[in-house]
Specification:
This protein is about 35% helix and about 20% strand. The protein is α/β, with parallel strands linked by helices and about 450 residues long.
């Protein structure tokens, strides 16, 4: 077992103030004075509404911290005798410690980013690569300046590969995360419209996401979606060799030869002359699978070895899933929404063999393009075979208007109880119902209301 020593911390952050024993063992590294283990290094992170320095005394006196990172100019008396590592920026220090620990444990790193669909590909990668490596993955939404080093600090020498999700809300953020984790393989899932309110254009989003492949080592690999409009730009930005993937037959280094059959529970496809079944619905899941194939090859795992494990793949926890409520089957996907992810979910609905209903709420954080984006989805609904659409939210009112003009039976509601009441009356035996909205719309309450009524 590899252990932290004060000398390890000094290697990252410089010699501490006062006398210290370089080989003194630390329990670990923590930013939380409430859960810090005795003998750990305490790192006082600073945020908009908090300053970890305010909790350092508790870390020392109540939790017996073994050492403290410190960025304030004054040093209080109660820190006397505690090894003190002076830094300018505690967050930068925390990131340096995470990277140091990853290297000391000898763990390789794979990073995933994209405007939509980061978490599911991360889960797919962990599932399939876990057969070939001792994998550690980022938990929950640990995809930011704090979450990425936290993930690295959870590593142990038994791990061989860490899979990190990298999110961003502006330019330069992913570049910092790449510097903090030094991935050798980078996967970009898609360039969409999420965060366009902050970045102004999809090209700016592409460049911000492209910071991942700009920071890869020359001997690394960028795994990029060849059917994406910004694939040429991403390929140009990459400092590492590129492997492409797609769900469009023949379009990419990893792509199906044909898509053979689809329904609400699976997708059958042909690859290298063989038929395979992905036990999940939707082209977006197939897209994620082929991203996995590209990343696996970069790590030395053959595609056939991955595809041999398809039957064991389950639905990612907390993401879209089918549930039966009364007479109908509901596809619950109200975790988040953007034009790209909404169209992906509509694609799942299109493959269903029965009457198709869509319960849609607003897609948030689209800024000035929001109204037009909703209307564009409304125009597309007939092509997805939607029979009835129920809309909720001010932006979705425009979607409903356009859908109605296109011949779709469409209804809009200012209140969710009225929507739930109408939907319940509308349901027929064998219906398939998509429920999709941004998390802030809390559209799952409509489903819960119907559950309570029909049991």
């Amino acid at each position: 077992m590899i252990e932290w020593t004060l000398d390890d911390i000094a290697t990252c952050l410089g010699r501490p103030e006062g006398e210290y024993e370089p080989e003194s063992i630390l329990s670990g590294v923590s930013t939380d004075s409430r859960t810090l283990e005795r003998g750990s290094l305490f790192v006082p992170l600073i945020g908009e509404n908090f300053d970890g320095h305010d909790y350092a005394r508790r870390a020392v006196e109540e939790r017996a911290a073994g050492a403290v990172v410190w960025a304030r100019p004054e040093v209080p008396q109660w820190l006397t005798g505690v090894p003190l590592f002076r830094v300018q920026d505690p967050l930068a220090a925390y990131q340096s410690l995470g990277l140091y620990w990853k290297k000391k444990c000898g763990v390789r790193c794979l990073a995933v980013t994209g405007s939509v669909g980061k978490t599911t590909p991360k889960e797919f990668l962990a599932h399939f690569l876990g057969t070939h490596f001792a994998v550690h993955k980022s938990q929950a939404n640990f995809n930011n300046d704090i979450g990425v080093p936290k993930t690295l600090l959870e590593l142990t020498p038994r791990h061989e590969l860490v899979i990190t999700e990298m999110g961003m809300r502006g330019s330069g953020e992913i570049a910092r995360l790449v510097k903090a984790a030094e991935p050798e393989v980078g996967v970009i899932t898609a360039i969409g419209t999420s965060h366009i309110e902050l970045l102004g254009s999809r090209e700016n989003i592409a460049r911000a996401k492209g910071e991942l492949v700009q920071g890869l080592p020359l001997q690394g690999c960028a795994v990029l979606p060849s059917s994406d409009e910004f694939y040429p730009l991403l390929k140009e930005l990459s400092t590492a060799p590129v492997t492409s993937y797609s769900t469009v037959p023949g379009n990419g280094d990893f792509a199906p030869e044909a898509i053979l059959e689809e329904d609400e529970s699976r997708t059958d496809f042909q690859f290298r002359g063989r038929r395979y079944t992905l036990p999940l619905p939707g082209r977006h899941h197939l897209h994620d699978l082929f991203a996995v194939l590209g990343a696996a090859q970069a790590l030395g795992v053959e595609a056939e070895a991955v595809l041999g494990d398809l039957a064991s793949l389950g639905h990612p926890e907390g993401r879209a899933e089918w549930v039966t409520i009364g007479k109908a089957r509901f596809y619950l996907d109200a975790y988040n929404s953007a034009p790209e992810s909404l169209c992906a979910s509509l694609g799942v609905l299109k493959a269903c063999r029965g009457r198709k209903l869509a319960v849609l709420g607003d897609m948030l954080e689209l800024g000035e393009v929001g109204p037009a984006a909703h209307r564009k989805v409304g125009e597309a609904l007939p092509g997805y075979g939607v029979d009835v659409v129920f809309g909720y939210g001010p932006l979705t009112e425009g979607l409903v208007e356009v859908a109605r003009e296109g011949g779709v039976r469409a209804h809009w509601y200012a209140e969710k109880p009225q929507l739930a009441e109408h939907l319940e009356r509308e349901l027929q035996e064998g219906d398939f119902v998509l429920v999709k909205a941004s998390r802030g719309m809390a559209l799952e309450t409509v489903v819960n209301t119907i559950k309570e009524r029909v049991g």
